[in-house]
Each structure stands twice: as structure tokens, then as C-alpha cells.
Amino acid sequence: MQKYNCIIVEDEPLAAEVLADYTRQVPFLELKAVCTDALYATDVLKKEKIDCIFLDIHLPGLKGLEFLETLTSLPAVIITSAYPEYALQAFDLCVTDYLLKPFRFTRFLKAVNKLQQGIKETGTRPYHFFNVDKKMVKLYEDEILFVESLRDYIRISTKRSSIQTKLQLTEIHELLGAEKFLRVHRSFIVAKDKITAFTATDLEIEDNRIPIGRSYKEAVINKLGS
Question: Would you say 158 and 139 are in contact if contact means Cβ atoms under 8 Å apart?
């Protein structure tokens, strides 16, 4: 059975204990950490591959929904809160479910089954959520044509549209991976399978002409010519 790594972000010990007990009863969930604040959770996300976050809203320091808005990409999120008034804002941030405390195990199980189904449906097609004007926008990797650096931001272009998010080009390249995406210029990363033609100075993707930087030229030609 495939297992999904999860973390709990909850500052109330009793609530965290209940959630931890619930997750241990679900065979396909693997609890990786219980975090008492958002900064601790951020550190765990950098070190571990996490599929789901069980997130409280009222946390010390950075609040739960503010925490989501700081992330450029994130796993599935199930909110666990005693406050129903944040539900609409939470669903605008693409959360999977919103559990009102106190909730029974049957309600928890309904939420994680929804989570499992969503992961299965998208599991064969990698995607990421990006923070765009305080909204988490989903992009599938196979939709991305190229990424352009705009100083503190990047523009991710697809065939249908483009989005801008606060991220460095090196960070997005690390996220997407060098196997499918190629750095061709200090300001551009391109999807290798979307390239339709290239010369020693530039390449074509759809109707876009992307420059090849001098320092990248040899590596690009070698990878595309092989």
C-alpha cells in the first residue's frame, strides 16, 4: 500500500495528540512531524517530501492561512480549526477540506479519503501550487513551456497563459528538476520536450524565441544534440 507523508501543525497539545492518534489509525498515512508553529513546519517541508499538512489556523506568530500564502508550492492541506468563519478564505487557497473542532474520527476519515482520491487522480501527472496574488494556483509540470526571471519574481509561461510568483530562477529549477527542464540563459529555464527548433544563439518554443546565453551555449548544445 502506498503511504502519504503528513505533518501536523498545531500548538494545542491535546488537539495535536488527537490528530496524531487519528493519523496512526489510517494505514496509508505516515506521520512525519508534529509542529507547534509555522516556522517549524517550514523547516520540515524543506527537509522532507510531505504529501499533506493538517493545519490549525490560530498559531503563535505566523497564522495558518498566512503560512499558506508564504509558500510557493505546497502539498495537500486539510484545515483543522474551531473557527468556521475562515472556511471561504481557506478554500480560496485550494485546501482539500476544512475540519471544525471538535471532530470525530469518521469526519477525519472522510477528509483523508478525499485527500487520497485527489492524490491518486493527480499522482501520475506532477503538479505544483504557486502563490499568485495571495491565491495558490495549480500548474501541471507538463503544461510549462518556459520560466523567465524578473528579478525578485519569475514568470511561468504555459500554452494558455502565464503567472508571476515571488521565486528565484534557481529555486524553480530545483523544484522542477534538471531532467525535464534546462537552464539556457541566466534569465530562462525551458521545458526540453517543448523545444521545436534551436540554433547556436536561440531556441524556439511555440511562437516564442528564447536566447541561449554564452556561458550556457556549450552545455545546451550538447544536451539538445545528444
Answer: yes
Strands (E) located in 10-143: 29-35, 52-55, 76-81, 97-100, 127-132, 135-140
Gap between the terminal Cα atoms of the chain: 39
Is pLDDT of 71 > 60?
yes
What is the chain's alpha carbon radius of gyration, rounded to the nearest angstrom? 20
| pLDDT value of residue 226 | 59
Please report, as a single letter, which amino acid is at residue 109. Answer: L
Model-level pTM? 0.61
Read off the CATH number of the domain in which 39 is found: 3.40.50.2300
Copy the grid coordinates of residue 184. Answer: 539556457
CB 63 within 8 A of CB 57: yes
- Residue labelled with grid coordinates 484545515: 79
Q: Which of 64, 91, 124 is the last residue of a domain?
A: 124
Q: Is the pLDDT of residue 140 over 70?
A: yes
Are 31 and 65 contained in the same domain?
yes
Scan for cell 511562437, then name that residue: 207
HSE-up of residue 74 (Cα within 13 Å, Cβ side) = 27
